[in-house]
Design a protein that fits this description.
The chain has 490 residues and is α+β, with helices and mostly antiparallel strands. It is built from twelve helices and 26 strands. Bound molecules: guanosine-5'-triphosphate and magnesium ion.
Length: 490
């Protein structure tokens, strides 16, 4: 019946697919079927439409698909009278390697690349509009089949949907341009370039909260930290001044749930964003105050702990420097003044007076409320404390005051919860919150924190170089990149 062979037919998506057969006589009628794939079901007769045409030219019969799709691949049958022939059709994808979504830091060059099955004319589009080469846009073809679009020093406005089209087939991908952190914008051009170079190997948004717990010795700083971590305080010992206890937890930014280190083994949900929260618990003994100065910073939230059951009188800051200081008011003065050294606000007196709030933010925690037995005395104590604060020149650092007992965690459960909520709220005001950083810088930051937690408060430059190397800083540039990293961190 048939005089032609039935070899497998190959074509590329978008091309015309031509199926042909020849029969030995002009009055033989031919029908085309597509194998239904699901076994036991009858083959489906092919019906013509605007994309598919069936016809004949003498003894030659044909079926044409104008624009083949990958889904046109399969087994086809051609039937003449009671003779049936089968052959396979394979429609290959045009894009052997399609475009991939890209996330990039502003200022960094970015390329979209794809590999196609055959050399052909291509066109690039951004958000549906054709794009052409320009001073910041390079379009090239490598080895005939690899097409590449490069955006030099990407800007915010480059964000969008990019596509490359061959005939009617296209491959699309999104470009997401991340903002360069403000701190990096303010760095020297040299440091900025090093940052951008490091950013090329991948960046991530870093949400990090550093909470500094400061205050007089024995007021319950470590106990407060334990309570915030949902732990008991049975074995709390006076914190040794040289040690800064760094306790970490994670906060799910969507649900605002706090995940404590004991639960770190539970797999985090990769679709959700977490903030790392590090608590630095300082020793309260005065001998160590000088050391503490080295560790305080602008980019932190301060918990200033006072034992509300103690006496407090108000002395001037000058008195305190010259004389012994041992009353609550004096400690509040001392710490607020110290924290104020790290303000980013304008330091002149007028600006301080007119500012609504000063940074860094401070939460004052009055502990030991259980030691004041009478309810009315508690109220009086809290009122006098507020009175001290009311006229304090640096009071605008203080966002909230909480009064509680570390010994009665159930009674003051809401207070502990409120402190946690407030910490997360304030974190968003911290200048480096949500910065996009090179991934290896984030890893190095975590490594340095864990060294501090192990008691290695002073890390030599050589040790830092070793840590950076362990965090995949490239050997060739390790020294300069570490210096830029340290510039960003200060
Ligand atoms: N009654 C009472 N005792 C408390 C409270 N908070 C802490 N304490 C006790 O005060 C003592 C000192 O507590 P810590 O938490 O070690 O105080 P700290 O401020 O960390 O002390 P340093 O590390 O030496 O600066 C411990 O015996 C605690 O049990 C509180 O709210 N009420
Ligand atoms: Mg302590």
């Amino acid at each position: 019946m048939f005089t032609s062979n039935f070899e497998p037919i190959y074509c590329i998506e978008g091309e015309k697919l031509n199926l042909k057969c020849t029969v030995y006589s002009e009055d033989i009628y031919v029908e085309w079927f597509r194998n239904n794939e699901e076994r036991f079901k009858a083959n489906k007769k092919i019906i013509t439409n605007e994309n598919i045409s069936i016809g004949r030219d003498g003894r030659q019969h044909f079926m044409t698909v104008q624009c083949a799709k990958v889904t046109d691949s399969g087994q086809y049958n051609v039937v003449a009278a009671n003779v049936e022939k089968q052959f396979s059709v394979i429609v290959k994808v045009m894009f052997k390697r399609p475009l991939e979504n890209k996330t990039i830091m502003e200022g960094v060059d970015v390329s979209f690349e794809c590999e196609v099955e055959k050399a052909d004319h291509v066109a690039w589009f951004k958000d549906g509009d054709r794009v052409y080469p320009s001073s910041r846009l390079k379009i090239e073809t490598l080895d005939n089949t690899v097409h590449k679009l490069t955006i030099l020093q990407s800007k915010f406005e480059d964000e969008g949907k990019y596509s490359m089209r061959i005939s009617d087939i296209s491959s699309c991908a999104e470009l997401d341009v991340k903002e360069m952190p403000d701190a990096v914008k303010q760095m020297s051009e040299y440091d900025r370039n090093i940052f951008l170079e490091a950013a090329k190997s991948g960046t991530a948004v870093r949400y990090y909260i550093r909470v500094m717990i400061v205050g007089q010795s024995g007021v319950g700083k470590t106990s407060l930290l334990r309570r915030l971590m949902n732990k008991d305080i049975k074995d709390v010992q006076s914190t040794d001044g040289i040690n800064i206890e760094v306790k970490t937890c994670r906060i799910n930014l969507k649900t605002e749930e706090w995940i404590f280190s004991s639960d770190f083994s539970k797999t985090p949900n990769h679709n959700e964003q977490y903030a790392d929260c590090g608590f630095w618990d300082f020793a309260g003994q005065e001998d160590f105050y000088a050391t503490h100065q080295t560790f305080l910073s602008t980019n932190a939230i301060y918990l200033l702990v006072v034992d509300i059951s103690q006496d407090f009188t108000k002395k001037s800051y000058q008195d305190m420097i010259e004389n012994e200081y041992d009353r609550i008011g004096e400690y509040v003065d001392f710490w607020l003044d110290n924290i104020h050294c790290y303000t980013l606000n304008d330091r002149n007196e007028d600006s301080i007076n007119t500012a609504e709030f000063l940074n860094p933010p401070v939460l004052i925690i009055g502990t030991g409320i259980d030691k004041i037995l009478e309810e009315k005395d508690r109220g009086k104590k809290i009122d006098s404390f507020h009175a001290i604060l009311r006229n304090h020149p640096k009071r605008k650092h203080n966002r909230h005051s909480y009064f509680l007992s570390n010994h009665e965690p159930f009674e003051y459960k809401t207070e502990f919860e409120n402190i946690r909520t407030q910490i997360l709220k304030l974190a968003a005001e911290i200048p480096k919150w949500g910065d996009n950083l090179p991934t290896r810088w984030i890893i190095l930051e975590k490594e340095i924190d864990s060294q501090i937690d192990k008691g290695n408060l002073i890390i030599s430059y050589e040790e830092a170089m070793k840590l950076a190397e362990d965090c995949s800083f490239p050997i060739k540039v390790i020294d300069s990149e570490l210096k830029s990293f340290l510039t960003y961190e200060t």
